[in-house]
Amino acid sequence: MSMNHPTVRPILISDVDGESADSDIIVVGLGCAGAAAALGATEQGSSVTVIEWAGPGGSSALSGGELYLGGGTALQKACGFDDDPGSMEEYLCAALGPDPDREKIHAYCHGSIEHFDWLVSQGVPFKETLWSSPTWVPPTDDGLMWLGENSWPYDRIATPAPRGHRVQSEGFGGKVLMECLTSAVEDAGVEIHEYTRATRLIVGEDGAVKGVLARRYGEDLAFLARKAVIVTAGGFIDNREMVDLGLP
């Protein structure tokens, strides 16, 4: 079977032709999530290969660089605010509309300090100052901002604290965020394949995912995973054609 087939459905590993490269973990997409997955896997001793259809950064590099964190981070404390995971959780459950996923929100809030500390350990900069006025993206490089926590009725539901943690940058901070995380990924020895578009999952006869079929400069490439494939190519939501294709 030709590997260059116009479908997103998985391909059997027995139908894969030509050369292949393998590693423990294959990560598809090198945005913020992909970088975190790659670094987490290397910390556990796995070899990692990342496939990125353009250059590193993904939609994360185009973002404002604002990360919703709280619960009492070092940045909050430096700006004079006390916060706790419970208050953060109450606010999110109220602000996210009906039927919030309380289990995920609980885990996110109670791991928030650890998330912030991890970002700092990867070299991501945060200035210890507050932008106190309502805005989408501050016109300064202030590191902390309000994101509705002190607005009615949420200030009556949960103890308010600013939780918008903004990467230090003039203008949008996503580029700086991804420069730091990409450098950390490279320093960890992760193999990065740029301008390589993942096209199909490779599966075994039992349906288990074995790797990823990709295409680079008109050539089909097979990347096989000894342990797992992690798909973090969430930015395709902006590609209407891909969305219309649906899931395999």
From TrEMBL:
UniProtKB keywords: FAD, Flavoprotein, Oxidoreductase
Superkingdom field: Bacteria
Gene3D superfamilies: FAD/NAD(P)-binding domain (3.50.50.60)
Names of the cofactor(s): FAD
Listed name of the protein: FAD-dependent oxidoreductase
ATP-binding listed as a keyword: no
Organism: Gordonia sesuvii
Domain FAD-dependent oxidoreductase 2 FAD-binding: 24-237
